Each structure stands twice: as C-alpha cells, then as structure tokens.
Amino acid sequence: MKLLDKFKALPEKLAVMSPRKLVFLAFILSVIVASIIYIILTGFLTPRQEGAVVPQYQNVVVAAVDIPERTRITKDMLKTINVPKDVVSQDAVHTIGDAVGKAAAVRIMKEDIITGQKLTGGNGFSGTIPDNMRAITIPINDLTGVAGLVKPGDYVDIFMISTNKAYKNAVYGKLILQNVLLLAVNTSFNNVQGTDAKDAKDNKDKQQQPAGKLGMVTIAVQPSDVMRVQGALQEGILYLALRPDLPSESYTVVPDYFQYMAGGQEEPKQQQPSQPVQPATAPMPYYPPAQAQVISNGSSGYSDGGGRGIEVIRGNSVSQVRVQ
C-alpha cells in the first residue's frame, strides 16, 4: 500500500519540480531504458556456442615491392605480416630467410603471399638468362666498364678497339653489339648485395680490388653472336657504353672508325706492301687510215718505163703502186 501511495503521489511531486530537474530525470530514465533494451537484444541475437574457437594468426612472407619474373629475391623485397591461419596455403613461406636468394618463377605483385610455387631455387643463375639467349663473360676494368657504374639489369653497347699490329700508328674500332643485357657483374647478379655469406665476401673482395684490376661482366647474347664477341675479344679490347633507361632508339647505325695517329711513322720493314704505282705512259700516236694519193702529172716515179702510178701513204710509210 505504501508503494501504491507513493506512485499516486508521484504526479504531485513532478508538478512541483523545476524544469531543469525534469529534464535531468528524463535523461536518466532514457539511459536506463536504452541499456535494458541493448542487453535484451544482444542476448537474443548472439548465438551461444559452447567451445567457440578464437581465430588464430600466423606470420607469412609477402612481397614488399613488385618482383619481376626471373629476378633473384633479396631481403629488402620482402616483409612479414600476420594473417588468419585459415587463409594461409600449405606451401606459404613463413620466414624471410627461406625466400632470400631464390628466383621468382612468376611475376609477384606487391602484398602477394610468397609460396613455394612462386619461387625457383634449383636453376640458380641460369634462371635469369632470357629464353633463347646465351650467357658469356668478358673482362672489364674501370676504364672499359664505365668506371664500375654498370649493374645487373643494365643495357649496354659493346665496342672494340683493335690491338692488331697491322694497324700500327693507326686506331681502328668498330661496334660489336647494341642493346645488350648485363646479367651479372663479377659474381653478383640481379643486384643482390650480401644476401648470404658467399655474396657478402664477394662484394667485400670487389670493394678491396685495386683500381684497374680486371673484373668480369656476364652478358646475354644470341647464340649466333657468341663467336662474334669472342672473336672480337681476341682481336682487341672491348669497351662498354652504358645506355639510358629509356632510350629514344634501340639501335643506331655506327660506322667503323679508322684514324691515323699524328706524328707516327712505321718502320720500313713493317710497312704493309702497297700496290706499285704504274708509270704514266704516253698515249699511242693516232694514225689516220691509209690514204691514196694519185699523181696527176703522169709521172709514176718508176724507172722501168712510162705509165701512170699512184702514191699510197699508209701511216708513216709511202709506197708507189703502178697502174696499167
């Protein structure tokens, strides 16, 4: 009864309350009602599952940048992220060290998960050679190798300056090949820098090489150009000319170069035989055709009697022909 009496007296108490207190009371009641409704709805809508499994995550290796096909993978090309275990394939790579040093079998896009099918480790360096091409090595130094600024993946032109003694006191050069892909510089290929102990040692040795010491570059050429390059290597010194990243032309016409050295003169015994100069001969004299001249005075010029005769002139000879 007391509770009912209080409920009946509630309107009278509300009537004497100030508007500010009424607003505050209404706000408190709305919050209480909203909380009750939220608890009730979440209890009905959320299914209760006994033994629910919390999703598990694990590390996987993904590409930090786009990796072209046939490119040897380095540490800076990769990174690790956490993904739900349910979406990870069985052959996914989980540590960066398992992928470094291997070549990309296909083009790997940025943020793609690295898997065993996308890598090839058995081919090694041969996996970087383009199809239908051959890899050959030529020696270089700081002068012939563009001061060591070339790196794997660059394209160069190859020139030859002859050291043949037949061109003494003269310089002869020619263009051997254009637009040639550099596969490796010394023992580093695809711009790998210190991915393992062997590569780190090779790079350290390269930095400690004295200036002018011969290095090596390995290039990709057509099978028909292998002997051409090796033959030019025996004839003279090969020079590299580094091409720009975006050349306006792939190939240009470059004529052979031949220049005599100023102030040089070969020894007589080493001079190349030259064709003897034919002395100028006087032209043969022109003789007009044989002419016949008739002596009109009746004198034949013969001593054996009278009669008429003609004087025949043939070139420089003159003869008398008797006419009956």
In short:
The protein has 324 residues and is an alpha+beta fold. Among the domains are: 57-126, Type Iii Antifreeze Protein Isoform Hplc 12 (Alpha-Beta Complex); 134-191 and 211-260, no CATH class.
Radius of gyration: 51 Å
Q: Give the CA-based shape.
A: elongated
The termini sit apart by 193 Å
For the report, how would you describe the main beta sheet?
Answer: 7 strands, antiparallel
Helix content: 10-25%
Query: Uncertain segments of ≥5 residues (pLDDT<50)?
Result: 191-201, 206-212, 265-305
What order do the SSEs take from the amino end to the carboxyl end, as H and E?
HHEEEEEEEEHEHEEEEE
| Strand fraction | 25-35%
Number of helices: 4
The averaged pLDDT comes out at: 74
Structural class per helix/strand content?
alpha+beta
Number of strands: 14
Protein name: Pilus assembly protein CpaB
InterPro entries: Pilus_assmbl_Flp-typ_CpaB (IPR017592), RcpC_dom (IPR031571), SAF (IPR013974)
Transmembrane segments: 21-41
Keywords: Membrane, Transmembrane, Transmembrane helix
